[in-house]
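task queued by scheduler; priority normal; single chain, no ligands, no partner chains; default sampling; output format set to structure tokens
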Amino acid sequence: MRQWSHVEKSNGTKSANKQRIVQIPVGTHDFQNREDYEFGNYGYGKNHVKLLYVNRDGTHHNIREYEVDTHLKLKTQYDYLHGNNRDIIATDSQKNTVYVLAKKHGVKTPEEFGILVCSHFLYLYEKVDEVSVKIEEYPWERLQADDRAHNHAFIYSPTATRFCTVTQKRNESPLIKGGLKDLRVLKTTQSAFTDFIQDGYRTLPDMNDRVFSTVVAAIWQFSTANGVDFDGAWNAVKNCILDKFAGPPETGIFSPSVQNTLYLAEKMVLDKVKQICRIEMTMPNKHYFSVDMSKFPKSVLEDNENKEVYLPVDKPSGIIYAELLRKDITAKL
């Protein structure tokens, strides 16, 4: 076996400063014992293809801005095993495909565009065995002026980031997943955490009323693409999460734990959107701890009733997650 180092040893002459190019011969070991190994996951693609689509309907314009990843898995591994690129669709060609399809067919929802990209590669290239497309949408909203929607002006409003993944194997239906992330929420009451295990490791007291804050991420799978309003489904998921977190405006909703809030939101999603067959959510704690004011004299604090000060602490943090899915009814028949 060859011994490798980062730099060639020098004898102190001028030539030592010159980089020597060494051609590495192909050793016989590269072709021996290949039957002892097999590929696991493999593929290649183009990441972060940025796209702004503008649909000009007279003076009224609509936009969608995406960042698209396209990944292909070929039937052969000639490129890996032999350095033979004859079946390769270049990643630059994949990038160009995204722009051509957007121009040719238009852009509706991330999920529909992902389905279009998958079907294109499977139809056009017989050596492609599987396509995976991930799309992240930039959260633009139409600007309001004098309580009226502006025709062509938009504001970046990152309440939550929308994304999706579409994966399709040859001769199979596409697997469609929608998602949201970076949905940061906070409420100042109607949250508690009590009656958990008391032992020698516990220092956290019962909290009957606390600040509850988290950054929600969710991903869900559709059982079908037929007749799905993907925009409506995404908004429904977000609204279900906000509903079970916040509750009615006047009274709110009580949360005995993050786990319970997460479960109720997932259940509401499955109740509301029948085409979603499973959903997984994560809700990390964003802690806000009361600042100890007992060390300050009352003369300094003066009138401080109902005025509370908290210290935001984001690390370390708890992480709560769960996946909820519909039971397979046919298994019971």
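post-processing summary
- The chain has a mean pLDDT of 91.
- The CA atoms of residues 160 and 183 lie 5 Å apart.
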